[in-house]
Structure formats: C-alpha cells, structure tokens
Amino acid sequence: MTHQPVSVPAPNPCRFLWPLMATLLVIGWSSGFVGIRYASEEASVVLVLFWRTLLSGLILLPFALAIGPRMRLRGVLEQMLFGVMSVFLYLGGFALAIEQRVPTGLVALISDLLPLAIAALSQPVLGERLSARQWLGTAIAVAGVLVVSFDSLSFGAAPSWAYGLTVGSMLVFALASVMHKRRRILHMPVHQSLCVHTLTGAALFGVCAIMQGNLTPPMTREFAVGMVWLVLVATFAAYSVYYTSLRLFPVAQVSAAIYLSPPVTMLWAWALFSEPLTAAMFIGLAVTLVGVWMTSRG
Q1: What is the pTM of this model?
Q2: DSSP code for 276
Q3: I need a surface site. Which of 80, 152, 219, 281 has the fewest CB within 10 A?
C-alpha cells in the first residue's frame, strides 16, 4: 500500500502584495508635504509645480520612447486628458486655493476625503459595490481623518469660490481615478502614461508661471532638495504605485489607503521639521487604521 504525498498549498504571493503596495502608496502620497515645504520657501507654488512636472516628464521621456509599446496618438490624447485632470486641475486647484488664503488645514482635510468620493463613484461607474462592512470602515476612516485634522482646522477670509475650488479639485481627481480604472483597453504602461501626464501638467503650469512672472528656478539648496523629493518620491513613487494599484485592486480599496496620509504627513513634519505631535494625532491614526483595515478586508 503506497501513501500519497500530502500536498501543501503554496503560499500566495498576492496575499502580501496589497500591504506592500499600500505602504508604498501612503509613504509616497504623504511625502509631497516635505518637498513642497522645502521648495515653496524659495518660489511660488505654481513655479514649484511647473518644475516638478517638467523634470518628472523629461526624466521619463527617453524611457517612455524606448521601452514599451509604441505610443499611438489616440492613447496619448486620452492620457493628456487624464493629465489635465489628475495633475493640472488637482494639484493646481489646491495651490490656487492656498494662494487665495484658504487655510492649509482645511485644504488638506478636503483633499484627504478623496477616497470617500472615489468610493461613491465606484459603484455607479465601475459596478464595484461596497459592502456594509466597507462603508462602515470608510466612515471610521473619515472620523480618524477628522480627529487628526481637528487642531489645524480654521475658516479664513478667502473668497467663496476658492472653497468650492478645493472640493472641485478633489472631485476631479476622484473622477479621473475611476475613469482610469474603467478605460482598461487603452492603458499604457505606467511609465509612459505618467510621462504624458506630467508633461501635460508642465505645459499648463508653465503658462500659469509665465503669467505670474517668469520660469527661472531659484538656485538654492532648499529648492533643489525640494525638487529631488517631489520628483523621485511624491511623483515617481506615489503616482506609479497608485496607477499600478488601480490596475490590480478595486479602486475603493486602493483609495482607502490615502486616509492614512494625514497622520503620516504629521510624522514627516515631526521627524524633519520638529513640529509637535499631539495625543489627538495618535488617536486619529489608530481610528484611521481600523477604518482602512475594515475597508480593505471587506
């Protein structure tokens, strides 16, 4: 009588892929604060965004032309539309709102509600229906974001349209994310699409910067450090991981990780700029972690 060997199921590598991608996404997404903090001390926000997107696009351009399928005009035009939405309108809208003196804490809070808008759009557009557990997790994550942001919230004296601009910018990026997930047929490799997105944003930010003055970057150490950080971490790492995750996982699950950006941003600020940490921040971080876990597990 022969004994059949007992088969042991092999470990599933995809089980660990999402936690890794989510960690990279949160680190990259929250790090934009660091680059902006360094670079904006020497230049206007529009000039910072122009050089950030221009350098990112130029670095990616030779790789986009040499590696991957040939870029067709239809695909390039479609990706340019996503670039207008996810780079120019999203980043530029928040920059303009801050320049109009909308409080930074309020702008950050509205931008961090992006996953809620994506979750609401994912069902009618993509048919990705969230379970009751996921909606509960979303509500808990939003509560955590509110706790973290409470100390920095204030309402300034900006014009009313500037407040609406922050909401509109957030909704535009949410719509772009859902559309990007839906338009799978014309997807380019991430390095090609990100190249088109950033060069499109650079052209539009360049026009805005010329209207404000000139395109000359300040030759200072702080501006250079800020650019390196914004290009390598906040653009290449954050956007590439985000777009790759959208292709592999449900859009609501991917966007839920962004709820962790506010507390992680405050950890960046504490570590690099000695900004104080409060008990409310740690409470908010714990609450947000619970909400993101429930949304991802659902």
Answers
A1: 0.77
A2: -
A3: 219
Nearest 10 degrees: CA dihedral of 279, 284, 290, 291? Answer: 170
For the four alpha carbons of 50, 172, 85 and 289, in that order, the dihedral sign comes to: positive
Nearest-CA neighbor of 291 among 122, 173, 116, 128? Answer: 116
Angle subtended at Cα 47 by Cα 43 and Cα 51, rounded to the nearest 5 degrees = 115
Asked if residue 92 lies in contact with residue 205, where contact means CB atoms within 8 angstroms, the answer is yes
Neighbours of 32 (CB within 10 A): 20
CA dihedral (275, 276, 281, 282) positive or negative: positive
CB atoms within 10 A of CB 118: 29
Consecutive H or E run containing 253: helix 251-256
Q: For 120-178, what is each residue's pLDDT tens digit?
A: 777 656 666 667 777 777 777 777 777 766 665 555 666 777 778 888 888 888 888 77
Residue 241: name the closest of 16, 26, 33, 55 by CA. Answer: 26
Residue 222's Cα: distance from chain center in Å? 23
Tell me the C-alpha distance between 251 and 174, whole Å.
10
Residues 97 and 108: their CA atoms lie apart, in Å, by 11
Token pair belonging to 128: 């990705």
